[in-house]
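Hey, can you fold this one?
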Amino acid sequence: MRRDGAANREKVLLAAEHVFAEKGAAASTDEVAQRAGVSIATVFRNFATKQDLIEATAVRYLEKLTAEALRLTDGPDAGKAFASLLRTLAAAGPVKMTLLDLLPPHDDGEGLSRPVTEAADAFRAALDGALHRAQAVGAARPEVTGDDVSLLLRALAYATGLSEGEALDRAVGIVLDGLGVPR
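Sure. Predicted structure:
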């Protein structure tokens, strides 16, 4: 892909992340093109359908969260790193859940596409790795599982909006206390 084509694709994905987060299923590809500053033809040259755009946006967002999770948990203090990761993921949760909710249901035997599944698996592995590091140094309760953390993050994502800063901070603090993670 040419450099300008790659740059346009990235602009479209970034715009799609914001438009889908704001408008959910009601978001249009025209809005994405306008926000990206490209033509609708550019959007469809990169993504044949709106669903392809949604999937690529979800994959990009999961990959971004995975990279952030790996970066945050690379620090010397596993407990503080895990607390910081949970704060970051709680703040990112509403966008992540909106994007994942736009994907087709995967209980029909078809499942999610391979790229979405791989991105979700990598994200989950990074989250589990951060939890295990924190547990290894006594900075998280030993009986806590990755499923527990995922459930709590999903609950926070569904319960908060994109602008509920103080309430979200308090809720994350309560979750960290319950998980035995030092703040």
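The chain has two domains: 1-48, 57-179. Let me know if you want another pass with a different chain boundary.
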